[in-house]
Design a protein that fits this description.
The protein is an alpha/beta fold. 33% of the residues lie in helices and 20% in strands. A seven-stranded mixed β-sheet has the order 4-19-10-3-9-7-8, with helices on both faces. Helix 9 runs parallel beside helix 11.
Length: 415
């Protein structure tokens, strides 16, 4: 029998009396939703905002996929769960590695705690890089499900809690670089809600469209209209639908269309000498066609004889830089794990991106599109929208500001 409540990371979550669906729109910048509401093609989100709750909230830093998804599903910042980027410099080995293995996760997830307490939990992610961390601790023998749209054809009952996914969803396997990947996640969510009625479901989408198309373009409008339709179907099946994003999205191109990039490693090599500093870009992941591994947040590690304060002073003089922090200040300001932070943090402004060395970035995947990316302070603003109204206590709490990683608390306890 499921428990009446679970406690995790300082928050007590009651057992939902109806399904709670949290959707993370990867790259769901508030401007897309504001445009859609103004143009009238997001009727379900409009109804949620009118009858439920809607606010522009603050996401975790860096404003990237892995840190924010894990903040959302743990209800805590990176300083607690440990996922400080998509990619990091492992202090134990000195190697640069992807941060997508569950062993890097330092906190239990809300999904896992509910699963272990007897609830039926479903987690579906668009890209496979998040699947293992989101699925850590789920009890597949208790009806829990965890798979990615990217590898839906490989799902098995033993490893994912479900098999024959393509037949069940009724859609073909989607290309990882397509809007269809997100639509597959949502259609799977609808079908699973209809058949299995889980207490908790987490759906994480992909930002392929937002990296290529600005608000108001036909492609972006069509994508968000289809998302809105799926949200309405979920709500129509009796679920509390809670919508947020892992990060926003900014145009980081020059007026004529070429990428506006500060190649930080090249600049540091010219100033301090080759090999004396090391730039790590935490946006790096296997899906570089989206952005060429160019984002708004970088970490600099200083070698022998290079003082962080000198790197800070130099970085502040560079074009496109919005903010520079030493390690201690960055950890305090952005709630980062100290052992996974660089000696210096350099953040670009909304209109610029940071690269390492120019020779290391392949921008051919842009194929004539303007560079649109994220990672910095400008992309920290994200929506939080609930299909159901908040209690008076949670409305009062929200008036002081909302963090995106509080969305499970608001959706479960506040409605």
């Amino acid at each position: 029998m499921a428990k009446s409540a679970v406690e995790l990371n300082g928050v007590t979550y009651r057992m939902p009396t109806r399904p709670v669906m949290v959707v993370c729109i990867d790259g769901g910048d508030p401007s897309y939703i504001q445009h859609g509401l103004k143009r009238g093609f997001l009727p379900n989100i409009a109804a949620f905002a009118a009858k439920g709750f809607s606010v522009v909230a603050e996401g975790a830093m860096p404003s990237l996929t892995n840190p924010n998804n894990m903040s959302i599903v743990t209800g805590r910042p990176p300083s607690v769960h440990g996922i400080s980027g998509n990619y990091f410099l492992d202090p134990a080995t000195g190697a640069e590695v992807m941060m997508n293995d569950p062993s890097f996760l330092r906190a239990e997830t809300i999904l896992s705690r509910f699963s272990q307490s007897g609830a039926k939990v479903v987690s579906i992610t668009a890209k496979d890089k998040l699947r293992q961390m989101l699925g850590k601790g789920l009890d597949f023998g208790n009806g829990c499900i965890n798979f990615s749209a990217e590898k839906a054809d490989r799902a098995t009952k033993a490893e994912n809690g479900i098999d024959d996914v393509l037949r069940f969803v009724g859609l073909p396997l989607a290309d990882v670089y397509s809007a269809d990947l997100s639509h597959f996640v949502l259609e799977a969510g609808v079908k699973i809600l209809e058949k299995h009625r889980p207490e908790i479901m987490y759906l994480s989408l992909t930002d392929y469209i937002q990296h290529k198309y600005a608000p108001g373009t036909p492609e972006a409008d069509d994508f968000f209209a289809k998302l809105d339709h799926a949200f309405g179907r979920l709500a129509g099946l009796g679920a509390v639908v809670a919508i947020t994003a892992d990060h926003g999205m900014s145009d980081k191109s020059k007026p004529e269309g070429s990428p506006n990039v500060l190649y930080l490693q090249d600049a540091l090599d010219a100033e301090f000498g080759p090999g004396r500093t090391r730039v790590i870009l935490p946006i790096t992941d296997p899906y570089v066609v989206h952005h060429g591994a160019l984002g708004g947040f970088s970490r600099v590690y200083c070698g022998v004889g290079v003082r962080p304060r000198d790197v800070q002073a130099f970085a502040r003089s560079l074009p496109g830089v919005e903010a520079v922090y030493d390690k201690k200040t960055a950890c305090r300001t952005f709630e980062q794990p100290a052992d996974r932070e660089g000696d210096v943090v350099v953040i670009s402004n909304a209109n610029a991106a940071i690269g390492s060395s120019q020779a290391k970035h392949d921008l051919s995947g842009l194929k004539g599109h303007r560079l649109r990316s994220h990672g910095g302070l400008a992309e920290r603003r994200v929506p939080v929208i609930l299909s159901s109204p908040l209690s008076a206590a949670y409305r009062q709490r929200a008036a002081a500001g909302v963090r995106s990683y509080e969305i499970f608390d608001y959706a479960i306890n506040g409605t």
